[in-house]
């Protein structure tokens, strides 16, 4: 009977079971080294998919052995801790090859290095070159449309996706069918197999319970317990590809880019279009004969083949920076700066004369500069960063020019208070907007002008976005009041609050992250008085006026609201609002006896249209 000894790679890729099913390995004695089993077990214990795939292949071989198609034996002993420690140097591979030699068996591997070493040792080798099959669409692609930026799948949860342009991105439900753990694990297996076959695919990171795969433009994060509380797959891809000409300030900024090597920060909130702008900068510079490299983890920028993209070398961006300092590119794009070590690497490379473009999360342009404070010397910051670009909703909202001077700080008069100051100037107007300096032991970031308030249109848009998102969880009317540029007060019915807030606050946290706005959720107020005065002076308690099934409503249109006036006696009551015979919504009357509906909402449009058509607007007691 023919004997074969497969190594770990041949088991994982499923080629042994394929050859048994095809009849090529029928009536073969398959000898599996315990070292292979040990390695697969270790990978599975770390939560890595390849370990589970390999163990599943061994289970199939056991079934084939019981059916009499093959003879399956396990040989050798498990590797010792010392041998496992030396596995990266090839100790386990050497054990497996030696067992094939001792048994006089054919050594089967899908690892080209293993095959070459075995041939050099005089072992009979079969090298199974991985099959190249026509790549079929992944199952996850059924959730995508042309304008889908990301898909979010979790076991026993309805699939969600972010769709639309950068300016109008919305999170929507894409299917009523909730995927199971088994279905998501099958999709994860398909994704990992594709990463082996697709020349544009690779596993970017693999940890216990977490794997990040890059497939062409798609970054796929796979999370499993115990790292996450359920199986989850998140797929993100860019939906916009722009050039610098598509942005305002492009003329001035292009001149600034090619004038000399600079230190540039691209900042903005998550999903604002920072990476898209970084790609546009890279392609523009490459088109003007600059050598461009990138430092990314994961590597997901979509760039021309001539621009090399580097990941952490041996798990460290410090090592990557050491290589790049030898390569000496004109510009390096660092996507993205998060940890202190990232800011230090960015600074070291910039001070070494390399042009740097860094991507950093920030809610305001000034916040990007403040991320350097405390991480490097204050006086060095202008040498490291001379330009800050703030991106929001896919467009350039602000460009800062960072300069260094010695002067008396703004607002001080004594000449002996002069000190080194970092000036943050608006690039378009040239006017200073911030000064950064030391005062005693403190570092002061002093605004020189009041921060620009949001326009009425922007405020209305924010209110509409908040109302839309909260209304997904509240069955009754949602009232929104902006309390600041990035904060809002939301009132909903008392019984809707648990749904809006969610378990441990997860729902409202998700809404806040999505919109970038701090939201305070409160119930509608209920009048402290049990009895209210009617226009005629008659006193009625609520039990009496609840008998009035239909309550006429007077409407009033203001710049910000359509106001439905019912009278103070209905304060705190919940009514169904009806136009003609059409039910519109359910709302709770405020303390002043009115219901305020944002003028920008679709409900306000319906009410005004009904009035123009001569239909009566009234409330119906619930």
Automatic annotation (TrEMBL):
InterPro entries: AAA+_ATPase (IPR003593), KH_sf_prok-type (IPR009019), Nucleic_acid_metab_PIN/TRAM (IPR052041), P-loop_NTPase (IPR027417), PIN-like_dom_sf (IPR029060), PIN_dom (IPR002716), T2SS/T4SS_dom (IPR001482)
MF-aspect GO terms: RNA binding
Name this protein carries in UniProt: ATPase
Top-level taxon of origin: Archaea
Keywords on record: RNA-binding
Domain PIN: 2-116
RNA-binding among keywords: yes
Entry similarity comment: In the N-terminal section; belongs to the PINc/VapC protein family.
The AAA+ ATPase domain, residue ranges: 260-382
Keyword RNA-binding: yes
SUPFAM superfamilies hit by this protein: P-loop containing nucleoside triphosphate hydrolases, PIN domain-like, Prokaryotic type KH domain (KH-domain type II)
């Amino acid at each position: 009977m023919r004997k074969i000894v497969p190594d770990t790679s041949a088991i994982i890729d499923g080629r042994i079971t394929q050859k048994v099913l095809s009849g090529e390995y029928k009536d073969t004695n398959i000898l599996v080294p315990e070292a292979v089993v040990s390695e697969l077990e270790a990978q599975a214990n770390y939560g890595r998919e390849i370990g589970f795939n390999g163990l599943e292949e061994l289970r199939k071989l056991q079934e084939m052995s019981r059916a009499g198609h093959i003879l399956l034996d396990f040989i050798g002993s498990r590797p010792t801790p010392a041998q496992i420690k030396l596995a990266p140097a090839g100790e386990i591979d050497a054990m497996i090859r030696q067992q094939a030699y001792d048994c006089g068996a054919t050594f089967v591997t899908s690892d080209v290095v293993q095959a070459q070493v075995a041939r050099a040792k005089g072992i009979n080798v079969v090298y199974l070159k991985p099959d190249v099959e026509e790549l079929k669409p992944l199952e996850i692609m059924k959730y995508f449309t042309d304008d889908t930026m990301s898909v979010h799948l979790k076991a026993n949860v309805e699939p969600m996706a972010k769709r639309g342009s950068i300016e109008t991105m919305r999170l929507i439900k894409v299917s009523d069918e909730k995927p199971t753990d088994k279905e998501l694990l099958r999709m994860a297996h398909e994704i990992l197999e594709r990463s082996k076959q697709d020349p544009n695919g690779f596993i970017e990171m693999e940890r216990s319970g977490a794997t990040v795969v890059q497939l062409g433009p798609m970054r796929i994060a796979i999370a499993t317990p115990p790292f996450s509380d359920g199986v989850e797959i998140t797929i993100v891809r860019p939906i916009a590809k722009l050039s610098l000409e598509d942005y305002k300030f492009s003329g001035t900024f292009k001149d600034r880019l090619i004038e000399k090597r600079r230190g540039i920060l691209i900042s903005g909130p998550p999903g604002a279009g920072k990476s898209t702008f970084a790609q546009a900068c890279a392609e523009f510079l490459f088109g003007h004969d600059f050598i461009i490299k990138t430092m990314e983890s994961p590597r997901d920028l979509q760039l021309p083949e001539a621009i090399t993209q580097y990941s952490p070398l041996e798990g460290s961006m410090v090592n990557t920076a050491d290589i790049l300092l030898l390569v000496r590119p004109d510009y390096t794009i660092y996507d993205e700066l998060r940890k202190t070590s990232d800011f230090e690497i960015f600074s070291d490379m910039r001070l070494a004369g390399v042009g740097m473009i860094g991507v950093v999360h920030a809610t305001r342009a000034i916040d990007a500069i403040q991320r350097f404070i405390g991480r490097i010397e204050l006086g060095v910051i202008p040498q490291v960063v001379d330009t800050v670009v703030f991106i929001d909703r896919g467009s350039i909202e602000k460009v800062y020019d960072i300069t260094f001077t010695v002067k008396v700080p703004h607002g001080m008069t004594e000449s002996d208070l002069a000190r080194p100051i970092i000036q943050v100037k608006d690039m378009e107007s040239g006017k200073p907007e911030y000064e950064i300096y030391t005062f005693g032991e403190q570092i002061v970031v002093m605004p020189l002008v009041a921060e620009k308030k949001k326009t009425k249109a922007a405020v209305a848009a924010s209110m509409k976005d908040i109302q839309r998102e909260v209304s997904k969880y509240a069955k009754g009317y949602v009232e929104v009041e902006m309390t600041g540029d990035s904060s809002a007060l939301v009132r909903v019915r008392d019984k809707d609050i648990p749904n809006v807030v969610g378990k441990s606050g997860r729902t409202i946290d998700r809404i806040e992250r999505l919109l970038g706005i701090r939201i305070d959720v409160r119930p509608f107020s209920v009048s402290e008085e049990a009895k209210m005065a009617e226009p005629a002076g008659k006193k009625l308690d609520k039990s009496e006026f609840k008998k009035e099934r239909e309550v006429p409503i007077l409407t009033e249109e203001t710049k910000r609201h359509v106001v439905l006036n019912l009278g103070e006696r209905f304060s705190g009551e919940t009514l169904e609002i009806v136009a003609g015979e059409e039910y519109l919504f359910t709302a709770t009357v405020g303390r002043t006896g009115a219901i305020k509906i944002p003028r920008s909402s679709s409900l306000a449009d319906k009410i005004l249209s009904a009035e123009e058509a001569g239909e009566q607007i009234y409330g119906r007691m619930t």
